[in-house]
Fold these 4 entries.
Entry 1:
Amino acid sequence: MIEFKLPSLGADMDEGTLLEWKVGVGDTVKKGQVVAVVDTSKAAVDVECWQEGSVGELLAEVGQKMPVGTVMAKLLEPGETAETIVGTPRVLPAGRAGATAAAPPPRRMISPAARKHAQEKGVDLDKVTGSGPHGAVTLEDVEHAAAGLAPPAAVLPAADKAGEMRRAIAAAMARSKREIPHYYVAEDIPLVKALAWLQAGNAKRPMAERLLPAVLLFKAVAVALKRYPELNGYWRDGGFVPAERINLGVAISLRQGGLIAPALLNADAKPLTQLMQELTDLVRRTRAGSLRSSEMSEATITVTNLGDQGSQAVFGVIYPPQVALVGFGRVTERPWAENGELKALPMVTASLSADHRVSDGHRGALFLRELADLLQRPEDLDR
Amino acid sequence: MNESEIRAVVLATLLSIAPEVETDDLRGDRPLRSQVDLDSMDWLNFLLGLNKRLKVEIPEADYARLVTLDDVVAYLMKKLGIGP
C-alpha cells in the first residue's frame, strides 16, 4: 500500500487546501499523473503522483486544509486488493471535525459532522449537493445549505489571497536572511553580439515564435551552472546536496502583487525555441493558477530577470533550501571601455547571490565570467 | 474599420492581458508602459494579440516605435491602409 502525501511545494508552503480530486477510487495512477488540485498560499497547483498503483481510498475531502505530509489518499500496489487497507487508521490533521466513511457504503456518503450539523440546523440532507469525494456531503456543504448559500468554493477571496501570499513570502525570505549567509558579486555583460544574433533570428521567425532576450539569458545561466555545481542544489540537514538536474526557478510577478518562481525543468538541455515555448506556457499558467507540483518544488536555483521596465541591477534573496540566485537588471546602453576605446553598448548587469556556507566569492565571480563569455557566443547556446 | 474601432481593439487586447486597467484613465499620448505594468512577456503577448485580431504582421524592428497608445493606433492604421 502506498501513502500519497501532500508534497511540499516550496519553502513558503506548509499547508494546502484540496480543491479537487482528479482521480476516483479504482482508477489507475501513472507516474507523473495529476491526481489532485491543491490551493496553496500562492496558487492553485496540480499535484502529481510519482508512484504507480490504483486508487484504494481518497482520505482528504474537498475543502479540507491540511499540513504538508498529510496522507491524502492510499494507492494499491499491483496485487493488492481494497480489503488489504480497510481498517487502516485515517490520518487527518488534528482539530478537523469528521470525515467520510472509510469503505464505500451502500448509501450516500455524509460525514458524521455534516450529519450532526444537519440535524441541529434542520437541513434536509437529500437536498444538499455534496462537494466531497464521490459526492460526499461535507460539514461545509451543510453549513452553506443552512446559510442558504451555494456549495463552497474553497478558493479564498482575492484580498485574503494577497495577504496570505504576502505572509508566505515574508516567512520564506525572513528564513533565508536568518539562516543563509549571503554573498554578492556582479558583472556587467556586453550584449551586442547576443542581441544582434537574436534580432537576425527573430526577423526570420513568425511573431509567435520570436525569442525574448530573457530566454537566452536563462539558457546561459543553465549552461554555466554545469561547471559550477556548488551553486545548483540544496542546503539540507547541515550540508550541501548538489542537484542532479538544472531546473531554473523563474521569478514571475503576478498582476495582483506577489511572485511565484516555478521551474523551467532541465533548462541546460533544451534548445532556445523550446525554452521560449515553455517559458511562455509557464508564465501563462502561473498567472492563470494552473502550475504543476513538480514545477513548484523542483527548482534547483532561482533566476530573476527584471526585464526592460526594471532597475539596472538586482541583488536577490536566496529561496531556501536553494543556495544561489542569479539576477539580471534592465538592458541599457552604457559606456564600455575596450582596447583603449570607449564605446556605447547595450549591457546587462548580472548578479549572483550565493550561500557562503557552500561556495566562495571567487567561484561566484568565475561563474559570472563564464556566463559573460557564453553570452558572447549566442549561437552555441541554441543546442 | 475606422480609428475608433482600431482603438477599441487595441484596448480590448490590452485588457485581456492587464484586466485591472481603467482604460478611461489612460493617456493616449503618454508611454503606455509607464501607465500600465507590462513586462516583456506581457508586451509580446499584447503585440501577438493585435497580430491575431487584426492580421497585422509587426516586425521586431518596429517594436521600438510603439511607445504610446496613439503610436500603436497610428501604426496599425498605416499597416491596414486606413486614414490620411
Entry 2:
Amino acid sequence: MELYVNGIGLLGPGLANWTEGRILLASESPSCEAAMPEPSASILPANELRRSSESVRWALHVAQESMQQAETDPREVTSVFATSEGETGVLDRLCTALAEPQRTISPTLFHHSVHNAASGYWGIATGSQQSSTVLACYDSSFCAALLEAAAYAQIEERSVLLVAYDLPPPPPLYAARPLGGGFAAALLLTRAPGPHNLAQLDLTLSNDLSEEATIMDDVRLETLRTRNQAAQSLPLLAAIARQCNTLVRLQYLEDQQILIRVAPC
Amino acid sequence: MPQGLVHEPIAKDLPRLVENRRSNQAIDDGPHDPQDYQHTVPQHQQVGARLMTPLILTRYTIVSALGKGLTETYQALRNRRSGLRPCDFEDVGITTYIGRVDDVEDVFLGGGATSAELERFDCRNNRLALLALQQDGFIQAAIEARERYGAHRVAVILGSSTSGILETEHAYNRRNPATGALPSAYLTSHRYTHNMFSSAHFVRTYLGLRGPAMVISTACSSSAKAFATAARFIEAGFCDAAVVGGVDSLCLTILYGFASLGLTSCAPCRPCDVNRNGLTLGESAGFALLEKSEEAGRPGAVALLGYGESCDGYHMSHPHPEGTGAIKAMHAALLRSALTPGDIDYIHLHGTATKSNDSIEDTAIHSVFGPSTLCSSTKGWTGHTLGAAGVTGAVIAAMCLTHSFVPGTLNTTRIDPSLCSHVMMENREQQVRRVLSNSFGFGGNNCSLIFGTV
C-alpha cells in the first residue's frame, strides 16, 4: 500500500520539533539527555488551552506542526489519534474524588476524561468536521493507528492526520503503567504524491516474524522507543530523516509486523 | 464520487442550513437515483464518501438489560418490557434508573488449559463481554472463521468508552493510607482490566485470533465506528473477516459524571417526549462477525451497506446546535451505500432522551430525510450503553430486518411537538429492507451505519 508523508510533528525529550529532530535522527552521533519540551498548542483558543489537559496539548502541538509543514487546511483532513492511556491526569483526579465520601466531581473534569479528548479539541480548534478515530492497542497503539490511517487514505482517498501520544501517568497510576517520555508524533499521510512530500512509504502487513523488528541504534532513543507506544514511530521517523531507501519493520502486537519501505522524495 | 470538503467557516453555513430546514422540502420526494442524490447534497454537508462493498454479518449477538442473546432481546422489544430499574449499582447514591445486566457478577473468565491466561482479564467489563460471546453460537462462528481464513486473517475491532475503569475506582478506595500507593494486585491487572485495549485483548485471546486488533474509543460512537474501521481493514486486505462490536459496563465514573452534567433522569428515560428530562445509563456488550459477501452471502442475510463518520468541531459535550456533524455522517452513509434517503425504511435514533440530543438529532434527520421516514429510540428499553450503543443499535437493526418488526419508543407518552421527523411511540409489524442507525458521542464524534438484507 503506497502512501506519501506530507508533514511531520514531533515532541519528546531532546526532540523539540521535526526540524531539529530530523537532524538528530539522521545523525550517527549519540543523542544526549535534554530538558522536556513544553508544548505550545497555539492552535487552541486561549480559554480552551487553559482548560485542556497536558496530553491534549502534546497531541495538538504535533498535529499543528505537521499541518503547517504541509500547508494543508485542517478542515480537509481526517484524523486518527492513538493513545494507550488517554487522559490519566484527569482519571486520577476523578478516581480520587470518587473515593471521597461525597463523590463530588466537576462536569468539566468528566467530559475531559474521555479517551477522545484530544480529538474533540482538535475539532474545536480547527472547525474540522471530518471523521476522527481514536484508538488504543497498548504498546502497539501507533502501529494500529498507522494501519487505520493507511487504510483510510487508501480507501477513502483523503489526507489523514495520524497523531500518536502518551504521557507518563501521575502517581499512583504510574506504578501500573510506567511509561517513558512523554512522546508525541504526527504524520500527515496522503495516497497521491504532491508538492510537499517528505517521503514515500510502501506498507504491508506480514505474519512473518523471522526478522527482528527495527530498533534504534541510539541507546537513549531505543529506551524511549520501548517505554512509550508513540515512540514506536521512531524507526520510521529516523528512516524518513535519513532520506535513503530503508526497510522498517514495526512489531504489531505479538503476531504480526508492519513492513514499511521508506523512499526519499 | 464527490469529494466534499469543508471550505467555508461553519458559521457561514448556518443560515443556509436553517433555510433548508424551513423550506420543509421532503428529500424523500426528491431523487431516487443515487447518482442524482449525490448532486443534491450541498457541498457543505459532505464529508466525502466512496462506495463500499456490502459486508455480511454472519453471526451477531447482544447482551443488555433486556436479556442475554437475540431471542430474549427480541421478546423484550416485542412485549415492550423495559430493562430499566431503580439504581442499585454498588452504593451509588444518585436518584436515577439504570439498565443493568443480571448475573455479570457470576461470570467466570477462566477454565480449561488457558485458564490463567484468561483469569487475569477478570473485571466487570470483560465478564460482560464474555457473557455476550457465549450467546447465539458466536464463539463457534468465530472459531469457524478462524479455521476458514486463518487466525492471522481475522481482526478484532471493538469499541468502549470507559473499559474496566471500575477496577481503578475500587483500587483508589484501597490505596495505602501512608504512601497513597495502589494495591499491588491492581498494578499487575491494570493492563488486562482498565487499559483501553483490554476488551479486544481479552476477546482475541479467548477466541485464539491473531489478526489486527484495537479498541476504538470515541465515547458513544465507539462501537459504531468499529464497523467502519473493520470494513476498511477488509477492503484494504489487512484481514478477511472481523469480530466487531463493543462493550461498556456500569461504573461510578459515568454514573456520577453524567449526574454532574445534569443529564441523568430521575425516572426511566423518555426519548423524544415533550417532558423528557435526561438519559438513563445502561451497560451492554454486542458482537458481529463481518465477512465479505462472496464468502458468506446467502439470500436474506443481514449486511452492512454503508457507514458515515464525522465530527461536530463544536464542543466537548454539547452537539452542534444545527446538527451539521450528524447530517454529514448520515449523508456519507447514504453515499457510501449508493442509497437515497427514500431507500431507508427506518432510523434507529441515537435518541438518548436529553433535551438537546433528541432535538438536534431531529433537526439533522429532518434535514436529510424530511418528515416521513420512521424513527424511534430504544433507549427506554436498554438505557444508554455509551461505547456499546453503536453495536446495540446495529443488532436491533438486524432484528428489524429479519423479523419484519420496528420497535417504537418506550416510556414516551407524548412526542415533543417541536420535533419535525416521524418519531413512533408504538411498535410496528412491517417489512423493513434498510435501516440507518445513529451514534453520537462526546467530543462531537458521529457515526451512522446502514444495514440491509442481500
Entry 3:
Amino acid sequence: MQKLMVVDDSGAMRSLIASILGDFPDLEVVEAANGFEALKLLPRAAIDLLVLDLNMPGLSGLEVLSFVKKSPDLAKTRVLIVTTAGREEDRRRAISLGADDYVTTPFEPDALVAAVRRLLGVGG
Amino acid sequence: MARPTVATPEFVAEAQEIVDALNRDLIAAEVEGRAGEVPPQRINSLFRSAHSLKGISGMFGLDLVSGLAHEMESVLDGMRLGKVRLDAKALDVLFACVERFGVLIAAAGGNGGEAAQPTEQDIAGLVTQLKQVTAGGTPSGADELSSLVQLKDEVLGVLTEYEEHRLRDNLAHGRKLYMLQTTFELSSFDVGLAEIDAAVSKIGEVITKLPSSKTGEPGTLAFDIMIGTDASEKAVVAALGDEKITVVPIARSGGGKAPEAAAEPVGAAAAGDGGEAAAHDETAALKSVSRTVRVDIRRLDRLMNLVGELGLTKMALERIGVEIRRKQGFTELAADLHKENRNFERRLAELQAGIMEVRMVPMAGLFERMVRIGRKMGRELGREIRIEVTGEATELDKLIVEDLADPLMHLIRNAIDHGIESPDERKSAGKDPEGTVRLTAAARGNHVVVEVSDDGRGIDIAKTLEAAVARGLVAAERAPELSRREIFGLLFLPGFSTRTEVSEYSGRGVGLDVVKTKIADLYGVIDVESKPREGTRVTVTLPITLAIIPALVVNVAGRTYAVPLNNVQETLAVDRAAVRTIERREVISVRGATVPITDLRSVFQLAGKGRPEVSFAVIVGVGHSRLALVVDELVGQQDIVIKSLGRRLRGVPGIAGAAELGNQQTILVIDVVQIFNELSVGRDEIEGGA
C-alpha cells in the first residue's frame, strides 16, 4: 500500500483529485488543507507522493516543498506540483527546488493519473 | 475520464466564499486607498483569491469564470509586484469582475434567479478592460538581489517572485531586514507562526517563512522567518516577547558581514520535550483535515422536522400522563413520568436551539454584497455616496438572509435613486455633497431589525398624495384625512411610483409593493419614517428563523387554524355593534385607527355552526397594512413546524401549509399575505382611513 497526500486549500480540488485517484490500486489518499497540516503530517505519515498546490495561504507550496527537500527523513517522498496556467515562474522555482513533476490546471484526469503512475512506479 | 463539467455543491460553496473574500478585500482596499496606501497583504490576498478561483473554476468547467479570473489574476499580480497601480479606475473594473463572478457562480449552482447572465462579449469586454489596466503599468527594475542584500542563494532561491518583490520593496524603503530563527513543537507550530505573524504585523511585515530541517530533533520544526521593519533589533525582540526566538539582522551588500547564522538556525533551546506530545495526537492530526463541515440546509430542515415530530411525541406523552393522573391519581409512576417528560422537554428545547444555531449566519456577507451593489448604483446614477454598515455580525437564518437580498437591494436602490440628491443639489442645501446610506442590523429577542436609512431629501408628502390620487389609489376627497403613516403606506401599493422618467434602477415596473410582499413572505414587517430634507429610514423586522415558528391557534366554525404569530399584532374581543360599514366594507376601530374586518368563516367559505355570542378579532399586519380576522375562539400559542401541503390542498387560497398539533390533529396554517392579496386590503385600509 502506497500513500499519497493531497495538499490544497480548496476542498473541492482535494475531493476532485481524491476521486480521480480513487480507482488507483493499493493507494491510500490522505488530505491536508494547508501547508501547516502537511508539515504536521509528513514526518509521521510515511508519504510516498505529495500532490502539492503552490498557491496556499499561510505556508506556500514552495515553502512546503523546500522543507520536504531539505528533510533527510523525507528523501523518498516524491513531489508532484499542481500549478496553474500562467504561473510559469513559480513552476520554474518549484522544479529548481527539486519538485519531481508538475501538472497544470485545468488538467485532464488522465494527465494526473499518468503523472501519479510514473512517480509511484506503478505499471506502464 | 473527462474533466467534470458539473459544478459540485462543494465547488459552488467554495467559489462563492472566494467571491465574498474578493468583495471584502476590494471594499477594504477602496477604503485604504482613499486613506493612503493599500497594504501589500491586501493586494496579495486579492491575488490569491483570483488565482484560487481561476484554478478551481477551470477544473469544474466554468470557463467564463476561469478566463476572467485569469486576467484578473494577471492584473493583481502586476499590482502586488509593484508594476501596476491600484487606482479608482482599476478598482471599478475589479468590482465589475467580482459582480460577474457572483452571477455566474450562482447560476452554476442553480441559484441564478432573475439576474441577467453575463454574455461572452460582456466577459470579453471586461477582459479587455483588465488588459488595459495591466498595459498602463511600468515594469520594475531588477538588480540582482544578491548584490543588494547578503543572503545565501539557498534562501534567495526559495523566494517566490512576490516575496522577492516584497524584499526589494523593503530595501527600497530603507527598512531593516531580520531573520527570526525559532523552533516549534510540530504539534503546535502553526499557532507559534500565527503569533509571530501577529506580532510582526504591528511593526512591519513577514517576507517569507522558510521551514528549516537543519535541527534533527524529532517532533520539532525549525523556521527562518524573514521580516522587514523600521524597528531596531531591540524593538523587534521586545515586540516578539519570546526569548526562544533569535533575531538576526540581515546585512545589506556593500557593508557589514553576512550573518552566518541566517541559514543556520540555533533552536536547541526550544527543542524541548515535544516529541511525546506530538506522537500523542498523531492519530487525531491524521484525521482532522478541517474543523468545519458544509451542510446542505435541507438536511437541517429534515432534522428540524424531526424535532417538530418529537415535539408531538412529547405532547402525546404529556397527555397520557394527564390521563393517568386523572384515572389513577398522582401515583409514583405518574410522578416519574411527569419528571421524565420535563427532562425530555428541556433536552428537546436544547436540541432545537442547537439546530437553530447551525442555521444562523451573520449578515456580513449579504451586507458586503449590498455595499458593492450600492456603490455601483451610486456611480451610475451620478451620486456621491458613502455606505455605512453596522451590526453585520447579527445572525439570521441562512434561508432568510438569502431571500432578503432582493428586497434589501431594492431599498438601497430607492435610497440612492429617490433619496440621495445630486451633489450640486446637496451643496446648495448646505449638505455634505457625499450622501450617506446606512445599513444596520440588530437583534431584538426573536427578531432581527434591519434598517436602510439615508440622509437624502426625504419623502415629499404632498407629491406622494398627488401621485396616489392621480393613479386612483386614494379618493381625492379622502386625501386630506390621511395620517403620515397612512401616506407612507401608499408607497407600498402596487403600481405606485412618483417618478415619471425611467432609470435602470428604479423604472422596472416593480416597486415597494414587491418589497413588501417579499418581506411579508418572510413573516416580516416593514415600516417607513421620513423627514423632509433630513432623510428616510425604512425598518424591516424579521423573525430569526422560519424553520419553526410560533403561531396562534384559533377555532373557526369548529375547525382549527394556526396564524403565524409574526403576523399577529394583537387580539381583541369584538362586539358586533362596533362593526361599521364604510364604502361597502366592514371596519372596526382599533385604538383610533380604522381597520378592515373580515370573517375567516367567509374567507374559507365555512358553513356549519353559527357564530357565537362573543367572537374575537386577530389583528394581523403585513408590511404596512392591517386587517382584523374574526375567529370564534382563541386556543393558545404554540410552536409549529410548517409542512408543505399535499397535492390535494396545494393552491387553496389563504393556506400556507399544514402543521400538526399534539393530538395527532392536522391543522392548516393561514397564509396571511395571501388573504391580504385576495382582499386587496392595503388599498381599502387607506381609503377607509379616518
Entry 4:
Amino acid sequence: MPKQLAKGVWLNVMPTTQFKTISMTVDFLVPGSAPELSNRILLAQLLETSSAQYPTQTAMAEKLSMMYGASFGVNVFRYGKAEGLRFSSTIINDHFIGGHSLLNEMIDFMQSVIYQPLVKDRAFDPETFNRQKQNLIAYLRSLNDDKQYYAEQQLNALYFKGQPFFATSLYGDEASILGINGSDLYRDYQTLLAHDQIQITVAGDVDEKAVAFALSKWGLTDRQEQIENPIFQRPVTAVETATESQKLQQSKLNLAYRLPVYYRDERFYQALVFNGLFGGTPISMLFKNVREKNSLAYYASSRFDGFTGTLLVQAGIDQSKEAVVKQLIDEQLVAISKGEFSDEVFNQVVASLINARESRLDSQRALVNHSMLDHLVRQTVSAKEWVAKVKQVTPAEVAAIARQVRLQAVYFLKGEDLK
Amino acid sequence: MKQQHYSELGETLYSETLANGLRVYLLPKKGFHKTYAVMTTDYGSVDQSFVPLGETKPVTQPAGIAHFLEHKMFEKADHDAFDTFAHFGASSNAFTSFTHTSYLFSATHHLKDNLVTLLDFVQDPYFTAQTVNKEKGIIGQEIQMYDDDPNSRAYFGTIANLYPGQPLADDIAGTISSIDKITADDLYLAHKTFYHPSNMSLFVVGKLVPDETLDWIRENQAAKQFAKPAVIQRILPAASSKVISHRILNMPVERSKATIGLRGFDSLPTGLERLKYEDALSLGFTLLLGETAPDFLKLYDQGVIDDSFGYNIEIQRDAHHVIMAGEAEDPQAFEEAILSILKGFTEKLQRASNRFEAVRREAIGNTLTSFNSLEAIANQFDDQLYAPASLFDEVKVINSLTLEDVIDTMSHFLEAATISRQEILAGN
C-alpha cells in the first residue's frame, strides 16, 4: 500500500526477491501543457548529465560505475493529460556484491542530482546548459530520420489539431526549446520541485521502513494532488488527411481513429480484446490479411491508448498500394463489427493478452510503472483482477466496440523513386 | 542431467545432450511467472556455401536464405505455428543473425504444449512454390524498411566494408533480387543440412521444473527419426585481408553519421580464455572511450561526439570486430579524434589505473543485471563460442581481470586490426 510522506507525496515500496536489482523511480507529475513538454525534456537532458556534486558526465559516470554500474536516467512521459518527469535508478542487490549496501548510497545520489543541480547565479550553468540544449536539438533532428516515428508524429499532429499538448511530440518542439534560457528554466524547475505531485516507487529486496527513513532526509513538503483525472476525451471532428513525399524506398500509411473507451472504464477490457483482434497481435486480422494473405507489408499493426481514446494503425507498404491497403484495413474493421471472426481466433487473442499481462510481472520496470499508473488513476487493478476482466469479454462486446471506431486522420508518407 | 551451480549469480544451470545430438539447457528462475524458450541452429546468413547432408558436391545458395527459411518455418500445410502458440497463450517469434537462427516463445501457461509446438514446427518443414513466392513481398518490404534506416545502413555498411566479397558483406535478409531466386527445394536442402538436432540447442528459462521439462523434450525427440548426424561441411570463403578503408554513403538524413570498424586479424584463444579476451577488450574500450574517460569528456565538450556515441565488440564464428558509431556534425573530425585516441592506447590505459576498479565494477553490475531478463540470458547464451565456458562464467572472469590483461589483449587486437571508416551524409 502506498504511504503518504507529505501531502501530495507518495511512496510505494514493493518488496520482492525475484530480481537481482533494486529499482527506484521518482516521478514529478503535473497536468501537461505544450511549453511544459519542451521545458521538461530539456530538464531531463540537463539533469541526467550534470549536478553540483557531479558537474560532468565523467564525474557522474564514475560515481555510477563505482556503485557497480548503477543505472541512472531522467526521462519524460505522458499519460493522457498527465505529464511526468522521471528520475530512475537501478542498483545490484547487496548479496551479489559482497554485502556492499548500495540502497542508501543510491537514495543519497538521487537526492543530490534532483535537488542540487549545477547552477550559477540562479541559472543553470551556461556552458552545460548550452551544450545540452544543442545536443537535444540534434537528437530531435535525428528522430526525424526514423521514419516510423516521424510518420506517427505527423499523424498525431493531424489527429490532435488544435490540442497543442497532445499534438506536440513528447520530446517537445525545436522552436520552443531554442527559446528557453537557463534562468527561466531554473526558476521553472524550482516551481516543479515545490509544487508537482510526487510519486516515489521502489521495487526489490528492500523494506519500506528503510526506504522511508532514508527519504526523511529529503525534506519533502506538502503540495496539491495535481492530477484529478488524466483521461482526455477528444471530441469528434471531420477526417483530416495529409500526404507528404520523401525520398524513401518504403511508404508509411498511418491512420488514427477515435474510440471513446477510456483507461480502466467498464468497456476498457473489451477495447483491449478488440485491439488484439484488429491489429495488436501477430494473430490479428491486420497481420493475417495485410501481411500474411496479401504480402503487402512487413509490419501492419494497431495500438490502443485508453488515456485519450485513440486507436492507431500503421503499415509500411509500397507507394502504389495506399488505396488497396486502406481498403483492406477498413474491411477488417467492418468484419469485426459484424462479428465475422471465429471463436478460435477470439480465444487466441484473449490468451495472448493474458500472457502479455502476466509476463509483465517479470519485469521490474513494468512493476514500477504499474504502481505509478494505479496511483495516477486512483484505482488498483492486480494482474489477477485484470485477467478475470479480460476473460469475461465476449465476441459480441468486441463487435460492439468495433462499431464505435471512427476514422479521424490519415497520414501517408509517400516514398518517391530514388533515381 | 548435468547440474552446475554458479554461486556468484545464485543460478543453477541444468544441461543434457540428447541421443539425437540436441543440446538442452534448463534454467529455473524462482519467482518468475513466465517461461522463455529459444531453439537455435548454428546456421546464419554467412552459411551460403556448403555440402548438403548426405551429398558430396558443394552448393551455393542465394544471399538471405537463412532469414527466408526462418520466415517460412511458421507456415504449415494446414496451420500456422503462430496460431498454435497463440492457442496455448504463447507469443512467438524468430530472428536470424550472421551465424545463427533462433525460434522462440514466451508463455505463462501450457509449458509442455508450447515446448512441443516449438520442437515440432522447427523440425517439420513445409514449403511450396506458392508459399515461398508469397513471402517474397513481405521480406521485400522488410528489406526496404531497413534500407531507409540510417542506423541499419551504418552498421551493415561497415560490416560489408570490413569483409568485402565475403558472405558477411551480404545483408542478413539478402536483396530483393537474391531472394527472388530462392525456391522451395533450396529451403528443404538448407533445412535438412542445418536443422539436424546435432547442430541445434534448446535453452529454456523461467518458471520450470527441470526433470519434468527434460522428460517432455526427450519424449518428443525420441518419437522422431533423424538422419545420422554428420559434421557439416561449410565452404569458407577464400581467406582475404582486403578491407575497404573508407566509403561515403549519401542518404536523405537530417543528421550525419560516422562509423569506424576495426576488423580483428589476431588469432583468438578458445574456451574460458576467449571469454576473458572479449571481456578484456570490452574493459579496454570502456577505459578509452567510455563515459568515465577524460577523452570522452573532451570530445563531448568540443561537440565532436554526443550521447549517440557507442561501440560494440563482436566475436562470432570465424570473425571478430569492433564497431564504433555516432551521429556527428563533422564526421571526419569524429573519426580522426577516435582513431587518435586508439593510437595512443598503451599510454592512455597505463594512466587509467585509478579508473580500472570503477570500470570493472560496472561490467560486473551490468552482467548481473542481465540475469533479471529471461530473454537476455537465453539470447546471449552461446554454448559453442566459448565452450566449455559460457556467459555464466562472466562475473568470475571479469573479477579476475587486471589492467595488465586489458593492455595485453588490446595490444593483441589493435596491433593486427584493420580500420574501415564510413560516413552517412545528407544527400540523394
